[in-house]
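User: Modeling request: complex.
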Amino acid sequence: MASTPENPARSLRLACRAGTHTGPTPGLAHGYGQANLVVVPREHAFHFLLFCQRNPRPCPVLEVTDPGDPEPRLTAPGADLRTDLPRYRIWRDGRVAEEPTSLLSHWPADAVAFLLGCSFSFEAALLAAGLPVRHIEQGRNVPMYRTTVACQPAGPFAGPLVVSMRPMTAAQAIQAALICNRFPQSHGAPVHWGDPAALGIHDIHRPDEGDPVDIRPGEVPVFWACGVTPQAAATHAKLPWMATHAPGHMFVTDMREGG
Amino acid sequence: MASTPENPARSLRLACRAGTHTGPTPGLAHGYGQANLVVVPREHAFHFLLFCQRNPRPCPVLEVTDPGDPEPRLTAPGADLRTDLPRYRIWRDGRVAEEPTSLLSHWPADAVAFLLGCSFSFEAALLAAGLPVRHIEQGRNVPMYRTTVACQPAGPFAGPLVVSMRPMTAAQAIQAALICNRFPQSHGAPVHWGDPAALGIHDIHRPDEGDPVDIRPGEVPVFWACGVTPQAAATHAKLPWMATHAPGHMFVTDMREGG
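Assistant: Request completed. Predicted assembly structure:
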């Protein structure tokens, strides 16, 4: 986790801070873990952390900052969560109000920031094992589906489990489960494979978010808990104020992806 | 997790509730996971949960109740944490004030209860694999040591990592690490093996708590994060009020120990 000038994660964060990088982060700072960001006022921090504790597959907590402290001391010491992401979303009463490139003028004095693992780390491990990640092959966004499986609620935070889907053969799916099980902080093993109806998904070719991908003969859909879940729960809570990363504009940590 | 009359975990809890069982729980309700209990007022619940999140090896969170709710709906639906343990400790300003057999007249309206995994589950797995658990062989309490390794603090909660020790040969220790890694909610893999001085332990034959055990030729001490750690951190915080289980008088859940 040394922050030498050669650390590409730190370089990217500094480019965000300087305003010279404002675009998406997938594929950048190769080998460094990326994270979802959710920022809530102190009074809602207990229940949001409790929501994550009760729903660890969709909400793997990498780090929670001390109230008011914008530095993620564990995953990227020296970084500043108010400036070091390329783009943010400010939510008011559950709706997007702004998409600024800095939170410097938006950071409540008692803000608590949550960094949550995302799927990039396990996808890198799948690719390294020669397993297919179809949306990457096809140059699309991963397909995501709202399921009829309810998360365990906590205070004002509630909502459905959202899943992502990657098609594989049965043998590949077994291998993927064993690999992903080693990445509990990147959503871990799949939550389901096979019949989409078991999750309440009626048309696998019409995802609720992202793009459809091809499912080839001999393949089944394999479903993972998705990092959109906690964001959906947070917006469901209709807090007067909260902030997140903008989609695809993640926080790049100093954590290596090796698992 | 069915609560049939034949469920020995539920039977034991009901005996505690009726006041007919007030003794220790190790060895009872065989096959059902037991848990450490920590109860704090709502205002300290965020920081205690954050302490657990930052120190998952010593503080594996099994369940956190909603503020005021004495029912652990996930790990023992229908149970009542105010009555279903054999004995409690009430702490005031970091010191034991009482050891009642019920919290019914002590439960703050906004109490938040934490159930934390304990070592019994991984010890059962070690024994099932034919590995030695010396303090059980010798009919003693497990030896525990305060280390010079500091936990990651959170708000008022801070303190040293406390470890338990079980002597094994190197080959047994490797096997134990692989087995315990499957039990993250029971402290997981060891944190150290070999030289006690690396943890700041000066005399392995004089534990800070529990009893010394024999270390035989060819064996090394193997150290696991210990559930005394969060209790030490909670008492360090000197809260005006908190409650825990009394030592050895655990909460017996409906969770099977299989891992």
